[in-house]
Automatic annotation (TrEMBL):
<keyword id="KW-0418">Kinase</keyword>
<dbReference type="Pfam" id="PF02807">
    <property type="entry name" value="ATP-gua_PtransN"/>
</dbReference>
<dbReference type="GO" id="GO:0046314">
    <property type="term" value="P:phosphocreatine biosynthetic process"/>
</dbReference>
<keyword id="KW-0067">ATP-binding</keyword>
<feature type="binding site">
    <location>
        <begin position="332"/>
        <end position="336"/>
    </location>
    <ligand>
        <name>ATP</name>
    </ligand>
</feature>
<feature type="binding site">
    <location>
        <position position="276"/>
    </location>
    <ligand>
        <name>ATP</name>
    </ligand>
</feature>
<dbReference type="InterPro" id="IPR036802">
    <property type="entry name" value="ATP-guanido_PTrfase_N_sf"/>
</dbReference>
<dbReference type="InterPro" id="IPR022414">
    <property type="entry name" value="ATP-guanido_PTrfase_cat"/>
</dbReference>
<keyword id="KW-0808">Transferase</keyword>
<protein>
    <recommendedName>
        <fullName>creatine kinase</fullName>
        <ecNumber>2.7.3.2</ecNumber>
    </recommendedName>
</protein>
<feature type="domain" description="Phosphagen kinase C-terminal">
    <location>
        <begin position="155"/>
        <end position="407"/>
    </location>
</feature>
<comment type="similarity">
    <text>Belongs to the ATP:guanido phosphotransferase family.</text>
</comment>
<dbReference type="InterPro" id="IPR000749">
    <property type="entry name" value="ATP-guanido_PTrfase"/>
</dbReference>
<feature type="domain" description="Phosphagen kinase N-terminal">
    <location>
        <begin position="39"/>
        <end position="127"/>
    </location>
</feature>
<dbReference type="GO" id="GO:0005615">
    <property type="term" value="C:extracellular space"/>
</dbReference>
<dbReference type="InterPro" id="IPR014746">
    <property type="entry name" value="Gln_synth/guanido_kin_cat_dom"/>
</dbReference>
<dbReference type="GO" id="GO:0005524">
    <property type="term" value="F:ATP binding"/>
</dbReference>
């Protein structure tokens, strides 16, 4: 193990730039080149200057600077301190156009012990979500809207639904140990390999991972290329935002991808969350995608229960995940839709926001569109149930496609667009 985590770096990581290597070993990310030098292992007496930071955490701290003093000497039962949670928000001043949370949880208890900072960040990120609010959970697929998003089949290329689940009793990826991560992989893969029927499949560790006995060197280079070409492969963190969060430690050990034989269900293990579950297919058959999504989440819950393990969940926060932005449902139902005329409007993103939708380019957050094709999904995660969010997405994208068709026919849609908003019942 001398050439492998936790003692050293894996061979694949050694080929990467040094500023990435520094976040993929056993230690906290400490990189002078990137200004990422705040350390949870050596908390300063006073909070660093956050006057130039643009993230939700920094705003909350500027509004109440006494929070750091209140929390700096507290530690969760699993050993997480406030530094582990806020390091990424201090190391990264933020993007002028994208406001991140600037805060992650090191374990489930973090949300409770460090409430004075998590609560205002959660409220700001989730439309004023109250500290005593209760989150509704509902995955009854019979309640999914029957509205056809794209009746012609001309506009929607692919659709998918994804969420995450965390295993109770373990620290979250920013803080989990080498051995914890391996145990999470073992439990989840053991459960996934019990799945049958249309969920049956196989597990592929990341190339270079030595944690999984059946594939001691991880997936083959051919499999890696196959998954990458289809957008189903995750790789080492390549941003200081992720490296400072701690999610790159011990890379690529105990990380990998399960998919079913039909390749329309994927489970990512030990990326930014313990698990990320994805259901996808070409076209707009969202009801089928959500039905399969509900099936995989339920099936994984059941098989893990046999091992005495349950998912992190609370009445207040719903499903517990690493980043506050993904609390609640953690759900993002989205379609890659080609709407070049409607998306050419200057108010395109603003109109989508009014409808409860989030718009991304073809390669993720803040990327550009390609030929008028956009990834359109639900914007909210917390405070509304899975069924509500999926229906907001379905009704919203269906409306956008109707407007695209109207513009193709040279029809006036200004009055309709001006009245756009969330469907009344949601």
């Amino acid at each position: 193990m001398a050439d492998y985590p936790p003692a050293s770096l894996s061979e694949g990581v050694k080929k990467l730039p040094e500023w990435i290597q520094l976040g993929c070993g056993d230690k906290e990310y400490n990189c002078e080149e990137k200004g990422a030098t705040f350390l949870a292992a050596n908390l300063p007496e006073k909070l660093p200057d956050l006057s130039e930071h643009n993230n939700i955490f920094a705003e909350a701290m500027r509004a109440n600077p006494g929070i750091y003093e209140e929390l700096k000497n507290k530690t969760t039962k699993l050993g997480v301190n406030i530094g582990h949670c806020i390091k990424t928000g201090i190391d990264n001043k933020g993007h002028p156009m994208i406001k991140t949370c600037g805060l992650v949880a090191g374990d489930e208890e973090s949300f409770e012990l460090f409430k004075p900072i998590f609560d205002p960040v959660i409220s700001a990120r989730h439309n004023g979500y109250a500290a005593d609010a209760k989150h509704p959970t509902d995955l009854d697929v019979d309640k999914i809207s029957d509205t056809k998003i794209d009746p012609t089949g001309k506009y929607v290329l692919t659709s998918r639904c994804r969420t995450g689940r965390s295993l109770r009793g373990f620290r979250l990826p920013p803080c989990c140990s080498f051995d914890e991560r391996r145990e999470i992989e073992r439990l989840v893969v053991k459960g996934l390999k019990k799945l049958e029927g249309d969920l049956a499949g196989d597990y592929f560790p990341l190339a270079g991972s030595r944690s999984f006995g059946e594939k001691p060197n991880g997936m083959s280079s051919e499999k890696e290329e196959y998954l990458r070409e289809r957008g189903n492969l995750f790789q080492e963190p390549d941003s200081t935002l992720l490296l400072s969060s701690g999610c790159g430690r011990h890379w690529p050990d105990a990380r990998g991808i399960f998919h079913n034989n039909d390749e329309n269900v994927f489970v990512w293990i030990n990326e930014e969350d313990h698990t990320r579950l994805i259901s996808m297919e070409k076209g707009d058959n969202v009801k089928e995608i959500i039905t399969r999504f509900a099936k995989i989440t339920s099936a994984l819950k059941d098989v893990l229960k046999e091992e005495g393990v349950e998912f992190m969940h609370s009445e207040h926060l719903g499903w517990i995940l690493t980043c506050p932005s993904n609390l609640g449902t953690g759900l993002r139902a989205g379609s890659m839709a080609k709407v070049p005329l409607f998306s050419a409007r200057k108010d395109f993103k603003d109109v989508c926001k009014k409808m409860g939708l989030q718009v991304r380019g073809t390669k993720g957050v803040d990327s550009a569109s390609s030929g008028g094709t956009w990834d359109i999904s639900n914007a909210d995660r917390l405070g509304k149930s899975e069924v509500q969010l999926v229906n907001i997405f379905i009704e919203g994208v269906a409306q956008i496609i109707r407007w695209e068709q109207a513009l193709e026919n040279k029809e006036d849609i200004e009055e309709q667009v001006a009245a756009a908003g969330l469907p009344e019942k949601y």
